[in-house]
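One-letter codes give the sequence; backbone shape is given numerically. An example follows:

. . .
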Amino acid sequence: MPPKRYHEFDGLRGLLAVWVALAHLFCWCGYGHLPAGGRAAKVWIMFTEADPPAQAFIILSGFAIATLLQREQLGYGRYMLRRVFRIFPVYWVALGLSIVLAPLTGMIINSVPWSGDFYMDWQRTAQANQDASWAGHVLAHVFMVHGVLPKSVIEGVSATFLMPAWSMALEEQFYLVAPMLLWMLRRGWGLMALLVTALAGQVLQGWCSNPINCSLPYWLPFFLVGIGSSYLATWLDANEEGRGKLGGVIAFSALMAAVFLAKDPLPFLIWAVACPVALGVWKGFASPVGRLIGWVLGNSATRWVGELSYSLYLIHWPVIILLLGLLHRYQPGMAQRDVLVYMLVVGMPVILLISWMLHRMVEKPFMSLGRQLAKVPASSQKLPVLPQIS
């Protein structure tokens, strides 16, 4: 029996990427905060900050890479070669466009009627940092090391040019050491060592934030949840019936209870809902709910967006800047609310279209090339495609 493909994770990736794109669109249009306070304002800030989807992506990345390494006996060189061809081509396209549009970004944050908004102030600070050391910021991003450079080396580097790419700097760190992490987890002392490393990441988070914390030790618990879920999926595949399912529910519930002690529970809640559905755990005790969630995550529309999710996650940022710049150039008197409506009605379809083009013209060809250069055995090529993580 061939290994399973978890279709629901494709849809989850799509929904998370759309969340991030919409959140940034609202922020760039000056709607990062609601004017009124209260609970609704707090919920809105949680939506526009887009931390939960980015964090859920991190968990999903841990699951996907752990599943890949369990299923395919890849040497480290072939494994990293495939990762490089997976992430860098699309990243470089989005980064290059963002660098070219940097002057337009400066014009937008200083000229739009809502230029005094908190988000514009934050972007203004990022613009000042990159202008202070333009070449340094460009080189750091080109080689994707902007997540490991401290403030003493280059100020604010994790939030310049292509801000969503902070998570890619983190992903690169994880890809480099993922095989070692799985090797450590198979040894008694390994888990203890990783927990100590994660604790050190929490203690040193102030030193690592520049201004976004992209250090692997800080985010290690999220990756470990994904890795643990991958091991659980493997175990469930070998124990499909009866007590196997019940044991899976118990194990997964214990895992979620532990991680819910974290300060940001929403990404774990997202994972606690999506992962059991994808693994088929909910079939035994909550079939109607599981089927509904499974349909939301596994229907053709969300899965199609999921295929574009990596391109969408990166390219939406420069496209938003480009569209806002064109609006400001040709419709400078447009009201803020009308700008938001235009960006939602016209901008989002344009973003999806460009994401689809980038996926078809850059992402898929380079992924295929990476597999060919890595000389993946024929038996491995027949395996279903794993969830693609942005």
